[in-house]
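Problem statement: downstream parser choked on a complex file, so we are re-checking the raw output for the XIL run. The parser issue turned out to be on our end (a line-ending mismatch), but while we're here, posting the original submission so the record is complete.
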Amino acid sequence: MKKTHALAGLVFSMTLLGAGLTNAFAADETLRSLAEKNNIYIGAILNSQWFSGGLPGNYEQIHKQQFNIVVAENEMKFDATEPQEGRFSYGNGDKMVKYAKANGMRVRGHALAWHSQVPNWVNNYRNDKQKLLKVLKNHIENVVGHWKGQVAEWDVVNEAISNNEPQWRTGSVWYQGIGPEFIDSAFVWTHAVDPDAELCYNDYNLEQGVNPKAKAGFLLQQVKRWVANGIPIHCVGSQTHVEDTTTDKHFIGSPDSLRSLAKELAKLNVKLKITELDIGFKSGVNVSKHDLERQGQTFRQYLDIILEEPNADTYLIWGVSDKWSWLGGLNRQKGLIYDDNLKPKPAFDSILVRLQTFEPPQDTSKKDTTVKDSTVKDSTAKDSTKDSSDAIRPFAMPSSISMHVAGRTLFVTGALSTKSTKIEVFDMQGRPIFSTENSKGVFDLSSISEGFYVVRVKSGMSNLIQRIAIK
Ligand code: XIL
């Protein structure tokens, strides 16, 4: 309460002193600060190169400024954490957990039981069910135990469903050696070690409909069974590696289909998270500015699910910059929100603007709500990294500029760059509609029709984003 009064007083005196410039102390907004207002997590992986210090400094700067949840690209996988039987390797994972703690970020663990990136010594036990059960249990107990209370959520099982027809992935070492009960067991074992962690089933091609012939339809049947049997599953992670539909006419995924999965999961008290988003174009095709803007709209449509569905809380992108994206291996390109030079793409703007314009319903606080199987006791997803008292919050510089609209003129005041001040106007869906720059800080908006917009002002180091009404 105190804070509100102090702020109200400040704004009031500013109004008196500054002739209506009420926004002079608004901090520069980031994806992260806006996501926090909307009670969601927004994140990007830490690419493998980060762990060996092989990335430019501004990569980490961007990462911690813009995101509040983190996952390791490869460093918590089976082959990374138990390269030899019974010999565990936690150095890289620890490095990420420390980084997350220092920057007040939530940590996702990825992944415990997966057919890929499994060391050969495991594959050698393919025909020994009892041994494989022991191997998986021991792996989970050690890895989950090591990061207990620090990894807030785990992909317990990754990609266990076949891609071609709705059935289990029969080629997986875990499926072959143990049978489908490896899945149930993995959830139970993980929950036993860390009852506070949120536990997810994670897979791709889940944005292709929920009918029984589609992968998500098959998954839904399994989730129903798990929930009915008291298996501790709290979330489905949709990887959401999708392709721009203009370069792959046959790509059938859509945000609407993923939304229908979220709604079905809500009936079971299970969350939906977007865990590995990228929206690539086919390799080799020319990608125009217009294509990038359309890509931005697709990013925004997937974000809408997370903002609007009460059981959806996480929007995680599989990479920061196109330069270090894994997509080349899928014959795709340019699927992320920063370009090769770590400059934000139109997709970044659409996400930023949508986070700015979204008005959450009054009573939601979904990040902290327990949305899960009520038969599972004591498994509230507590965000231990966020709550820890020694977490250092990234320092947000107060903005040294402010903007004010009078009639059809936009005034930018404060410490303006002597060279040039740029304004960009977006509609409420984050589509760019107008931009111009000059050195005076006075802009004519008469070409813009009546309505609500978001304006971003860039002047020197300042970067202010604010909603305006044009009447
Ligand atoms: C990918 C990594 O990005 C690559 O560096 C690695 O070579 C292969 O794995 N689904 C997943 C992720 O669950 O773990 C994969 O990550 C991408 C697809």
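For whoever reads this later: The two ends are 34 Å apart (CA to CA).
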